[in-house]
Design goal:
- Helices cover 25% and strands 26% of the residues.
- It has 309 residues and is α/β, with parallel strands linked by helices.
- It folds into 2 domains: 156 residues, Alpha-Beta Complex (Quinone Oxidoreductase, Chain A, domain 1); 124 residues, NAD(P)-binding Rossmann-like Domain (Rossmann fold), CATH 3.40.50.720.
- The chain starts with a strand and ends with a strand.
């Protein structure tokens, strides 16, 4: 099969488009014919990209990309809930080769049927971002109707889902973004928007039930002061991983694959209650350009690699 592989640590310049062995599903796994996979540039900084689950260095070459949309191509032993040809979307294990190739293997149980109203390119940007927003707001923060939530990075790939999901839940939503994206965040359903470059958010909001931070750094540290007593702060900022600060450690989490949540997200998308945005789609062979585009920022949604035209 064709795939994008890393033979050494590095940035986009280290990505190589080449022939790679096609993987085979083990018991409880499926082989997915990948139609599209989203680009997450920070994956080049993640621990699981370079280390095994037990902490040893992962052997090269390595294939990135752990969210995808595609079609079931083969079933591992014991898999009965899927059939060859089923369109699916979801995540595979962080510690194994990902989906930037014509085929990948994934655990069968956490996958979900692809949203009917989306093509594969659109569906590929949903799993990590939408599941992260869902789990942050509803599992970690137990957000309820009538509560007030502040979402940092509200125009980003995770933040845009978080604004929509919080609005769907019936919360009062305040989002921070740069000036060019304020109208976009309002369109997503935010009740209030703050230009973080022009206004310090802690001068405008207080007594928040929930703060969801996708930015980290100073933004995270300043966010504690706007929480009400008993309020909850959740962060996904990668620099918080491995922190020694107990409060930040408790606030930080990493998304997990979940079929029932992906299925509910698909239902909301198909019902028109969640909108999906992506920046641009590149052919698989242009992975370097796709990563450079994604690292450039300044746009809404993720960059996608189109594997099957």
């Amino acid at each position: 099969m064709k795939g994008i592989r890393l033979h050494t640590r590095g940035g986009p310049e280290a990505l190589v488009y080449e022939e790679a062995p096609q993987p085979h599903p083990q018991a409880g796994e499926v082989l997915v014919c990948v139609h599209a996979t989203a680009v997450t540039p920070t994956e080049l900084l993640w621990g699981p990209t370079w280390k095994t689950r037990t902490g040893e260095d992962r052997p090269f070459p390595i294939i990135l990309g752990h969210e995808f949309s595609g079609v079931i191509a083969a079933l591992g032993a014991g898999v009965t809930e899927w059939a060859e040809g089923d369109p699916v979307y979801g995540l595979n294990d962080w510690f194994v080769d990902g989906a930037q190739a014509e085929y990948c293997v994934a655990p069968a149980a956490p996958l979900a049927p692809k949203p009917r109203s989306l093509d594969h390119v659109q569906a590929a940007v949903v799993p990590i971002s939408a599941l992260t927003a869902w789990q942050a707001l509803f599992e970690r923060a137990s957000l309820r109707a009538g509560q007030r939530v502040l979402i940092h990075g509200a125009a980003g790939s995770v933040g845009s889902f978080a604004v929509q999901l919080a609005r769907w839940r019936g919360a009062h939503v305040i989002g921070t973004a740069s000036a060019p994206h304020l109208d976009f965040v309002r369109m997503l359903g935010a009740d209030e928007v703050i230009d973080y470059r022009a206004t310090r958010f802690e001068e405008s909001v207080r007594d928040m039930d929930v703060v969801f931070d996708t930015v980290g750094g100073e933004t995270l540290q300043r966010s504690w002061s706007v929480l009400k007593a008993g309020g909850t702060l959740v962060t996904i900022a990668t620099q918080s991983e491995g922190t020694q600060d107990p409060a930040v450690r408790d606030a930080f989490f990493i998304v997990e694959a979940n079929r029932s949540q992906l299925a509910e997200i698909a239902r909301l998308i198909d019902d028109g209650q969640l909108r999906v945005f992506f920046q641009e789609a590149f052919p698989l062979a242009q992975a370097r350009q796709a990563y450079e585009r994604a690292q450039g920022g300044g746009s809404r949604g993720k960059v996608v690699l189109r594997v099957v035209s």
